[in-house]
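[job 0412] stage=fold_complex status=start
inputs:
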Amino acid sequence: MSGVPFPARMAWRESRAARRRLALLIAAIAVGVGALVAINSVTQNVAAAVDREARSLLGADLALSSRQPFPDSVLAFLDSLSREAVAREACDSVSPVRPCGLTANDRISRTTEFGAMAYVARTAGTRLVRVFALEGPFPYYGAVDTEPIGVWDVLQSGRHALVDPAVLTALEARVGDTLAIGQGRFVVIGTISNIPGDIGFQNVFAPRVFIPAEYLDETELLGFGARISYDLFLKLEPTMDVEAIANANRSALRRQRIGLRTVESDREELGGALTSFGRFLGLVALMALLLGGLGVASAVHVFVKQKRETIAVLRCLGAPAGTVFRTYLTQALAIGLLGGVLGVGLGVGVQMLLPSMVRDLLPVGLEAELSWSAIGLGLATGVWVATIFSLLPLLRARYVSPLAALREPFEVAQRLPRDRWRWVARAALATSVILLALIQARHVLHGLSFAGAIGVGLLVLWGAAVGLTKAVRRWLPQRSPYVVRQGLANLFRPANQTVAVILALGFGAFLVSTLFLVQHNFLRQLRVDTREDRPNLLIYDIQPDQLDGVLEELAAAGLPPGHPVPIVPMRIASVKGEPVRLADVEQEDGDTAARSTWAHRREYRSTYRDTLVGTERLVAGTWWAGAGAGDAGVSLEEDIAEMLDVDIGDDIVWDVQGIALPSTVTSIRRVDWTRFQTNFFAVFEPGALEDAPQMFVTETRVGDPASRGTLQRRLAERFPNVSSLDLSVVQRAVDRIINRLIGAVRFVAVFSVLTGIVVLVGALATSRYQRLREGVLLKTLGATRRQIVRIVLTEYAALGLLAAVVAIVLSGVAGWGLMIFVFETSYRIPLGHLAALAGGMALLTMVVGVWNSLGLFRAPPLQVLRAE
Amino acid sequence: MIRCESLTQTYLSGGKPLTVLKDITLQVPAGEAIAVVGPSGSGKSTLLGLLAGLDNPTSGTVHLDGQHLNDLTEDDRARLRGEKVGFVFQTFQLIPTLTALENVQVPLELRAEPATARATELLKRVGLGDRLDHYPAQLSGGEQQRVALARAFSNGPKMLFADEPTGNLDASTGSTVIDLMMELNRESGTTLVLVTHDPELAARASRTIRLRDGAIISDSAR
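[job 0412] stage=fold_complex status=done
writing structure:
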């Protein structure tokens, strides 16, 4: 070792006596780095997969979508594009990917999509489905996987249907059965296992049925009120600049309410959304690593205190302060490096497991590939965190006087000398946390909020720990039994770990508790109210002439008539005299007027009534004050009113099936959307819409699932265009989606909890020797093993409880902030669950504490005293 | 060699000033061995610490081998100690995580000098040639103090400061250690400052300085 610099040599020798403790610190860093590497790698894998599969996600080069049949001008334009593609075709007959010799006609595929009830006579099963009537050789890129293989190609050769497997399950049907959709009849020739751009979850509300467009009219379902979506897919040639074509026509198409997608726009949108989620998970992972850093800091703090004499001797022997400082800094660097390397291994291992967990959530096939940038970033972050967190406590090594080798200092409460390096270290620490958050979030506001929240959380926990130490010292219950006093006194005596343990425990508990609160509140709000008076079956798209018939069916089933609500589809023509702009408009002065917001452009399904319902309340204006003269009164939902930038008294002109309907905003309502109930953005005063074309929706409650199925079937048989939605199906789907999403977040949070436990064990191990000596002395003086256990239990119960209570209060505030400001919904605290969580935390701390003190109970006094 | 003038040291104890040394002036020529004696709390260890440059005096000056310590920074003083000063402590102050050999190597390694051969030789010299790889906890008190002696002489110091070197040892072990220390001291011509309670030990120095309440009450040469 003669060529190795003194600090490194000394660091190595010094580490020999503390391997167990160092291993814990290395583990703490490793877990954090592991989480970071795994999440960042998977995020990059996803981005790579999106890039790789972008073309097959869309299945074509260009896609147009509209709620109305495409106007002739658009069809002519597409036709000209496909003819140009034919002319430009450079056929490479070797390539199986690009079929050659496509005619202009074949280069355009269409789907017509709508919701309908599917019905199988053999099993009498009904289910709400999304029907896709297909025409043309879609997809042009990627392939549709079917069971049996290859049936996609024969779909359009007869009255065939290909369905999601969920359709067969729900209808108890099988391949070969005849599926009734409206008046049309289709033979199920197979199921679809994968289609380009598929997200497993998007089909849980209404699974898909593909039929040939040729037989669409036979269903007789495309009448008034049907919500139909028309899509066109275009196959162009590589020599054609798709983006340029898209950009040149986007505005014109928008003005006709036609959306346009290209491979590039899909890639940006999807890649952006997935990467955002990945970055969010990355922040959760970063929290685990920061927690590990905190563990390192607290261990170094105690370490430097314990090494006071060694440091003083080194100083006596001529080591400058810098040499001593570098010795221990080298150890911190080594902890970071070793933890980083182990963490990379762990992260790569976890990364291999993740794809199977998130497959259902992603529209792309995920392959676990090593991401060197994620590995490099994880490793560097690990080393950096371990180093920067240990800087501040390490600086104390510089202040140890060589005189301490001769005697204890006179000054009992020694104040640290002024040292600008401490400010530098503090600034470096704060800057590092902010920088790491920014690197991980790639978003200034998110990064800063995250760093700020961490700072506040740590400050509160630290304040609570210091407060507890002081409070116990001041108000130590003098009359309580000796073991309680001794246990509590351990919280403030020299070499106590109160602050470190509360920070480690509290931070982990804060994270777990916040996630729990968010999940709990989501699920609580989306839970279908199962009380007897709440509806669980929604029946909609009822035409006026069918309403009596539907009510008859309800009565025949012994159900109350319900309250049919009329629905009138409409759009906004102008707001406060300003016409809605469907696309950006070049103005005479050269400026561009941006297109109107989504709230201006969307289709509204409005109603009219004379009373407020249970899920809404007025926040401004007055409910109908009587028959008003002039314009119709309209009451808007508050968020929509804000987006439209309107207030009481403002005018809105609506376009109801081509007829202008002027209105005045007379009130603003707040609506609780989280309940499954028909709610509306716009409610009109009675008298305004009665003559407009409309349809009805009604709700009812059928307690028994079998009767619910029977009613749905009877309705589907008698009124094929009427759809009914079983809310318990929706409930299961929602639960599944939320639990999967939160499961992914929770999976990452587990790393923080693991780190918290490692840091906790590390923190307790730090004070182990001191506790051991005290325990042995107590034993020598006559304390029984039982008394010593009770002392330990008292100490750790107090630590665990305080950490849990502070963490849960903090998470209560964080959960409130998230639910109210980020998710914009209501918030409730489940006190019982949280109390159980706090109890569990205290128990965990006690178990770890007692486990850590096992040696203390077993060690014979002589052994320890001889080692003095 | 060692010279101090009007040395005064005051500490804050419980918020009140406590003067531990009052106006000490003395000179120790090169090669001389002096003993500083006095009751507990008389300021012996503080005087030793200040003479060795372990702390800055509240007032007064210290010269060590011609260097004015007050002019040096903390790190410069550390380097000076590394080159010219050896220490022996009452509680041995071996670094518990290092072996006997490594403990002796430290002063040389700090100066980036070859250490193993010299440290081995010194440990053999103090009779511990077979205990090189033992940790302090595996050695008896006398053995630990012999390692400390080897360490003190490893850098070939011009001055040796010993603070109650036999305070934690029984009489016979103590006397073996002292014999060894005096022998090494003679061999290397080191200036010795020895703080002790023990009149017998003090008698082996050529001059005795007696302290009480932080002041010199006698300074007698043999």
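[job 0412] summary: The longest helix of chain A spans residues 263-306.
[job 0412] exit 0
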